[in-house]
Amino acid sequence: MGSDIELVLKLIDKEELANLALDLGNIDSPPGQEREIGVFVEAWLRQEGFKTRVISLVPERPNVVGVYQGTGGGYSLLFNSHMDTAVSDHDFWARRDCNRPIDHMAWREGDTLYGNGVVNDKGLMACFLMAAKAIKIAGVTLKGDLILTAVSGEIEQEPIDEFQGIKYLSRDIGARFMVGHGVIADYALIAETTSFHLAWVQAGKAVFKVTVFAGPCQYAPFIKRPYTLQENPNAIFQMARLIEKVENWALSYEKEHTYVSSGGTLIPTVNIAAVRGGMPFHTCTTPELCSLYIDFRIPPNQDVLALKAELERIVKSLRLEGEVELFHFRRGFEGQNVDRLVRAIERAHSGMFGVKPELAVGPVCSMWRDDNVFREAGIPAANYGPGASVGGGNLSISLDDLHKAALIYATIVLDLCNQDKTINMCTIK
Question: Active-site residue 154, yes or no?
Fold first, then answer.
């Protein structure tokens, strides 16, 4: 396929790639507001001659699919990126400034592109779109189908307490909804930032709400100090004891549950995400209850009920009255039957850099990315792309890295989608 590769790679223009990444990055699309960018992506795919399909649970949160159909007899490959971005203007209790331009816009300075949305994840989406465009313009035929997907609902949020409705859904309206409506392939490559490392294991997550009770409620003029911390009737003070205990225990959890596999090393973490207690508009009484919201990253083999029992044990060890509720759970997965995809990625990466890609360790394997959706459906999936994660504070990506990724993605397609596929048909007796 040497001549095909040379022609295709020459057609991937770095400036056109930059412009597409910036066009995508300048469509603000926080969770629940993906419709505008979905319209843009679908129009771009149609303009470039791809067959398109839009799959939506609700119109404002679409999943967009483009297909370059193969001639038959080869392996199909699905590329996946997400359209939603991480920061919304209602995140004012989590960020000092949730309206920073870099979280809602994109721009270029020299050969560097800036913007939360470009890094996560629209710049990488532009890479596989441009790779697919070059293959199509070159007139290269593929045996297997090439499927391009841009999904809503990847950013992690879930309904809880009074925060209900489609606006707060993530996985169930995005890649999982799309897969459930027939968008599948032999292999899936999730184009997310991995610093060109390779991973085919991904953490699951479990989120617990832990509520402690204290009291009885006291009207402020009747508070009688001093109290010992254990005797304080204010539930917020009692929660302070639990927070300290959980934070101290979190390190041992990470060490005990580190998951080393052939697809990368997963280091699960614990995050205290929110505390709720008392009524901000009614400050004259002590609250009798306070809730803590804890996010656990979990390896594929984690017993989540055992984790719940451990939290209950911690509450009891402090002699607190309390309850532990699991309100969100998604399994982690290690990729199976992924060798053919991995070898194709390794060959393309080696062709670019001269060495095989390193396996990912830590955060790359410890997030909850959409590769888990495909693995859950039995589709071998891997995670590979340029740039470092915004989760570590990175908000820029080099154009050179994006261009290299587009070249690599095109090479992977020409390799994998032109391998002959042995079809095993099920027979009904």
Answer: yes
